[in-house]
Amino acid sequence: MDKFSTVTSPATAYRTALSPLPGLSASDVSHHYGSVRALDAVSVDVAPGALLALVGESGSGKTSLLRCFNRMVEPARGVVAIDGTDVRSSDAVTLRRRIGYVPQNDGLLPHWTVLRNVAVVPRLIGMADPEGAAGAALERCGLAVDRFGARFPHELSGGQRQRAAIARALAASQDLLLLDESFSALDAISRHELLEAFSALRATVGFTAILVTHDLGEAARLADTIAVMRAGRIEQCAPIATLLAAPATPYVADLLHRAQASARVLTPA
Amino acid sequence: MIRRTGFFSRHALLVSLVAMLVPIASVSNAQPAPQRAIVVASKPFGESYLLAEMLAQLLERAGRRVDRRPGLGATEVAFRAIRTGAIDVYPEYVGTGLVAILGDTVTPAMRGDSRVAFAHVASRSLTRFGVHWLPPLGFQNGYAIAVRRETATRDRLRTLSDLAASPSRLTAGFTADFIGRGDGWPGLRTAYGITLRDVRPLAPAVKYEALTTGAVDVIDGYATDGLLAKYDLVTLEDDRHVFPPYDAATLVSSRLMREDAGAVAVLASLSGRLSEARMREWNRAIEVERRPIADVARSALTTVGLGDARAGATSATAAQRGDEGFIAFMRSRTADTMRLTGQHLRLVGTALVLAILVAVPLGLWLMRHPRLSEVVLQGLGVVQTIPGLALLAFMIPWLGIGSLPAMIALFAYALLPIARATIAGLRNADPDAASALEAIGATSRQSLLWVRLPLAAPIVLSGIRTAAVLTIGTATLAAFIGGGGLGEPIVTGLGLADMRLVLSGAIPAAVLAVAVDALLAVAERLVAPAHRRGSRAHRG
Questions:
Q1: Is the pTM of this model over 0.80?
Q2: With a cut of 0.90, is the ipTM above it?
Q3: Sign of CA dihedral B300, B118, B56, B408
Q4: What is the mean pLDDT of chain B?
Q5: N- or C-end of chain A: fewer Cβ atoms within 10 A?
Q6: Interface test mutation site (partner A, options B428, B430, B435, B440, max chain A beta carbons within 10 A)
């Protein structure tokens, strides 16, 4: 398996130095689908360059909250902001072009080559050399352009497709990343490799990110802060160490307990 | 023979309601135009073809231009066409006018004296519909219950009363029309108390064969059917006068009556000159000997003293000799087949292109209005369930007869498969990819053009394929309203019980359907998204 490149591109380093990474915030956000309440007065902050994991069962509201940030969900109440600026102050299409988004099952267009898929946002925003930018992004994500660029998505393995999806999310040098169960659909080995590679990428490229996952282990490994969600509310929002040391509610304690139990089964004593 | 209405009567109420609400389109272009061709039509069976051809030849000799529209599908279509001025002339029968058109009851006086029935029908048609009945042609073509000669001899059958008294339990094969009509089998059974072992519904085209091969023992025919003579069948006399009189007469539209009294006088010259015996002889020439209708009509006119001094030129229509081999017959019709195939393709092509232009955008629009989508698709589904012939009949008040109403009807039929395939294609077009593309900043238009449409294309095209094959088949019905195409020989062949003629239209139509289907299958592969084409090539 290819590893994510550990070489920091000069352009990224330059950009990171020049403009600091943005922070994210949601305050008092509520949303409902029909009579079903999805988000109930949720407030959360993500520091610049940090990664927040939203953890919870299906229906806990974690994906709805994520989608508020690129206006795929327009909450009925509350404010979602990037660096203190309400996301509603800019046009949704323009907003989405500056935010990387990685869905669970890659979301690559099946009839486009990998390179063309990755070049889509650079092309949308009118960059001078979209394919060049796409190629660089693919290389950063560990996919050699001359080997994979001309292939169609179905000719790649699941892990490779997910790398291409991450490359697509970052090809236009986006500094915000939304990951919606991006690693969940992979088999254990590909997933392990991808998590390693993603951590390395984050260390070199730098971005502020929100990750939705139902897997507390994955969250513990990648996130700076974990927000445990249940029934549209945040039960507790803290680093993993704090969660372990002082679970705020019985639900959080139980969730941690179950995650530990399942991990222990697989760990030799 | 489809002389009497079947399922049309069910729609009759609705049809007349609609007709009352909508002003008749053809009235608007009814300004005096002596040069216009007089449209002479017939219903789809031999005798009607012959009478119409005789009338057409009479008009031509009197210097009129004639537009022939033979084989209009059934009474409802033909009468509606003459009522609205879409056609000018066609032959009809008093009994049909009485029962099927006017829906009146047959009084004992009418049964006793056919002149009473004629006077009633003529005056009521004129006041209700503005359609003129010229004086009767001189013969009746009523229902004739026929049995094989051996059956008649064995059971001593001469009249329907004899049939009722017969000790044998016979099996009847009646046309659906005859079984359903009050003056058909139900009236007969009540009046005579006839009991049969079984009554089977039979298609008009096969009833004589069913009788002669012994599959059934009794059929309903018509008094002047040429096949009665060919097979030496015995017709049983209606000794209690249950059937209404079926005097034949020429119908004339109010439009022609207004525009060209001279032409009407020419048409009326045929009144009273024909007889049952002569009609049977001429019908036999057409239905059994397969002589060209134009030739038979010409010699028939000569026989009744309306001959043409210039007679003798043989008709250009291909020889239809019964002893000719099928291949030779098909070869002799090559030119006709090519011309009709061209007409057929024009009909289908235009309808299909229009349907694509409407149904694909409609499908796109309905995708965004799921609630409306149900309603609209159900509406199109209802259109689909209207029998082809009935839909064509609905068109006549607005669009008259010919290829335009046929095209519109075919267009309406093609909408559903295409719209439904468009919706299905869009729904299956990788919703994850489309929504992911929008999530990274593509507009909904871009996601439509880049993802949804390209991925939906093969399914949309398969809908178009379905519509094309369906339309090619349905277009054969266009001939029933004078729309031309490969249905023409089918309709004529059915009317004349000439299976070779039927096949000469049905085979090219089937070949056309298969060819178009194959062509569109290739197109379907060509529009397959890039990754599918690639993988298909890999798998061989």
A1: no
A2: no
A3: negative
A4: 83
A5: C
A6: B440
